[in-house]
Amino acid sequence: MKAAAALLALTLPLAAGTPQDAAPATFRLFDGLQRLDFETELLDSGDITVWRPSVRYEQQRDDWWVSAGVAVSSIAIDYEPTIVTSPAYRRAETFEASAEVARRLSEAWEVSLGARFYDGFSDYRALWISEYYDQFAGFLPGYETADPHGWGLTLGGAWEYIPHTAKLQAALSYGRDHIVPAWSPEGATVSRTRDVLDTLAGSLTWEAALSPRVKMSHTLRAGDTTARDIRIQARSEFAWAATDRLTLRAEAGGAHENPTFEAAYGALSLDYALTKRWSTGLSARLYKDTGEIEASNFNTAAPGVTTRELSLHLLWSDETTTIRLSAGRLDADYDALSENNLFFGNLYRDRDFLTTRIAITRLF
Amino acid sequence: MNRRKPSSPSSPDTVRRALAAAALLCLLLLPACRTMSLADQRLLQKPAMKFGERGALAADCTLPGQIEGGRALSSNAAGGGCSSCH
Question: Which of residues 38-67 of B touch A (CB under 8 A)?
Fold first, then answer.
């Protein structure tokens, strides 16, 4: 009897509900903390228009994050030559895709892996130069219409050495770009310059709070691109919550690449919370670089440029949705051209651009 | 992989600027190592106080990077799509 009672006591818990009786967990593709970003940007000077809508999805489950995004840039130019070739209107679309996965290894450590791909012209300058060569050398045997595209991989890590207050981030990236080459006649045919560039780059970012009202972020990046010297870039940002409503930000940065390229920029911005939901702000930025001129028959490289940008923004947010509208003006003033790049005088002439941006972020 | 052009040495001015920036950053090391309580973090968590954000939380438009080649810290293309561009 006692043995039977003991056996019954052991089996009762099993009979009451075994793991085999539990309903199997259903995997749902869209689960966890999720986020959608919709964005559309515009850069317009009248004869040059770049429009870039994009969408990005992010999901967090336990210690994992995954994200994926696509964007389609539409570039339109009113091509205007200075010497040879003819005026033309040209438009091209560029498709971009990216994906990233990240995992939190512990309270302080996180690693990530990202990939990107694009097919098309990366900017309006590439499209303008492609139009020039299509006209100038397109009829010659051996000429190939440009087919720019590229891809890249990024491996990253982050160490939050003081929770919610300070962290170090490092990233290593590799990319291959098939670019718009330069063409030159050689007798009855044409030859082209290098059209594949590989880039290996590393970056280090240090972000920390200096006080309950001040944060800073510093980034140092070094990139090695085919047939070029290493480019060093640095950027520092500071944010100061001057009051509960007013936030001031400052940014400064620069770049250096031998033999002659140097860039420097600075920006100031303020953000003011009008109400719990609405805020507005103003930002100004000044940028200057030296350009890079190489000795050749003619040259696609840009001369030095100085840009001044002023923009306003309006922001609405609640617990799940943030909407930002911004508009501004960017003045680009180029240095004088040399005889080597007069062919692209209208590409590198002074322009005033309108910049606009609409962005929506939704959490669910 | 790369056939790099012959390098020119960095100018003394560039080296001095880099050293000055590094020295300034070292001054920030001590205050950057303090721990913040949850109450201290209230203002630090405001969207306007965050760096490296995306979507509507990001302040900047990316398209000016097509003109300001020295500012972009990440780009789709290494050389802006042109053979000798940067």
Answer: 40-44, 46-52, 54-59, 61-64, 66-67
**Can you read off the two tokens belonging to residue A35?**
């986020």
pLDDT tens for A240-253 read 999 999 999 999 99
How many CB contacts within 8 angstroms connect chain A with chain B?
Answer: 273
Distance CA A149, CA A119 (A): 4
What is the band of B86 on the pLDDT scale with cuts at 50, 70, 90? very low
DSSP3 helix / strand / coil % (chain B, rounded to 5):
35, 0, 65
Of A332, A154, A133, A37, the residue nearest B76 (C-alpha): A154
Amino acid making up residue A359: A
Q: Which residues, in sequence order, are CB contacts of B57 under 8 Å at separation 6+?
A: A322, A324, A361, B47, B50
- In B, residues 20-39, which contact A (CB 8 Å cutoff)? 21, 25, 28, 31-36
Closest CA to B79 of A131, A122, A355, A218: A122
DSSP-derived letter for residue A277 is S
Task: Output the pLDDT for position B84.
Answer: 40
- Name the pTM for this structure: 0.85
Contact B47 A193 (CB under 8 A): no
ipTM: 0.84
Nearest CB to B54; choose among A56, A126, A289:
A56
Instruction: Provide the token pair at A68.
Output: 């994926």
Is residue B9 scored above 70 in pLDDT?
A: no
Give B45: exposed, middle or buried? Use CB within 10 Å, 0-12, 13-18, 19+. exposed
Residue pair A130/A121 in contact (Cβ under 8 Å)? The answer is: yes
Determine the residue of chain B that is closest to A227 in CA distance: B4
Q: Determine whether the interchain pair A208/B46 forms a contact, defined as Cβ–Cβ distance below 8 Å.
A: no
Rounded CA Rg of chain B: 19
d(CA A58, CA B63): 23
Tokens read off for B51 = 């760096």
* Nearest-Cα residue of chain A relative to residue B3: A227
